[in-house]
Amino acid sequence: MILKNRHNNLEIVFEESLLKEIETIAVQHYPNEFGGFLLGKYSEDFKSVVIESIILPYKYKASPVLFQRSTKDLEKLFIKEYQENSRYYIGEWHSHPNGSTMYSGTDLNAMIETAESDEVQIKNPLLLIISISKKKMQNFTFYYYSEKKLFAYE
Questions:
Q1: pLDDT tens-digit profile of 103-118?
Q2: Cα–Cα distance between 1 and 9 in angstroms, integer?
Q3: In this structure, which of 38, 47, 71, 106 has its CB flanked by the most CB atoms within 10 Å?
Q4: What domains does the chain contain, in order, with CATH numbers?
Q5: How far apart are CA 117 and CA 96, in angstroms?
Q6: CB of 74 within 8 A of CB of 53?
Q7: CA distance 144 to 137
């Protein structure tokens, strides 16, 4: 699947099977929000990013309207992904149970903190929000972070 963003002309490329995997994980945590990290790589010309896999947090807090993940104890996984598959952190995903795929102020603030963190090497992370019901994903939206704003893919 390929999505484009009018703001930056950056394409997102991903397999539907990866989206299905994210859906399955999110539905398993219903009615609470849940999420994780997106891994992949940019093309040489930086006009597209390929999302290839995810990493799930070991530690997190979740409720029907909140998801806070920790990066504690994940450094080795990120290093292994880079060394073995040349994949690195490109963004995050989380679910909105019985909600829309529109980001909240909390979501935006989390992306601002991530982009400004010394531990993160990219300044324009992606955010995927999926809307789920008890049984399945209802919808999904990818966002591109830039200049303290999130821009939706179509």
A1: 999 999 999 998 988 8
A2: 16
A3: 38
A4: 2-152 (3.40.140.10)
A5: 25
A6: no
A7: 21
Contact predicate 103/150, CB 8 Å = yes
- Give the burial class of 130: count Cβ atoms within 10 A of its Cβ; 0-12 exposed, 13-18 middle, 19 or more buried: buried
Phi and psi at residue 139, to the nearest 5°: -165, 170
Give the single-character DSSP code of 64: T
Concatenate the DSSP letters of all residues of 2-26 into one string: EEE-TTT--EEEE-HHHHHHHHHHH
What is the predicted pLDDT for the residue at 23? 97
Structure tokens, 35: 């999420």
- pLDDT, one tens digit per residue, over 48-62 is 999 999 999 999 999
